[in-house]
User: What shape does this take?
Amino acid sequence: MKKILLNFADYSEALQWTEKKAKNYKSMNDFYTSDEYKSAYPLIRKMYEVEQTNFAKKAKSELKKSGLKISDKVVYDFVSPFFNVSNYSGTIIERNGIPYVKLDLGQKTMSGKKSVRWHKGFVKSNQHHQAD
Assistant: This one.
């Protein structure tokens, strides 16, 4: 396998390179099995890991700013485009360094997921009920 010299500034640049190079192949799978991609993969993987680490740090910082921590019980009122309100409740967990909310038993999103990434819309469950 011929070694290809590459240098990406970040993961988005690596993705752009991947999309551009894949156009020279019949399919993405053909590209992913090529020597060209196999040679670039270690660097692409490194860029991905750096991106994930930075994202996790930012997410944890935002979680802390919100006054929340891993294991807190939280709630969120999701308003659909048709103004239907779905109430979600769950516990903040950590997955690969990133805060997620594991929904309470029996709950799932419209797409069937039983956990979602935490976001600022989630509040401590006792705060939610005090506002009602």
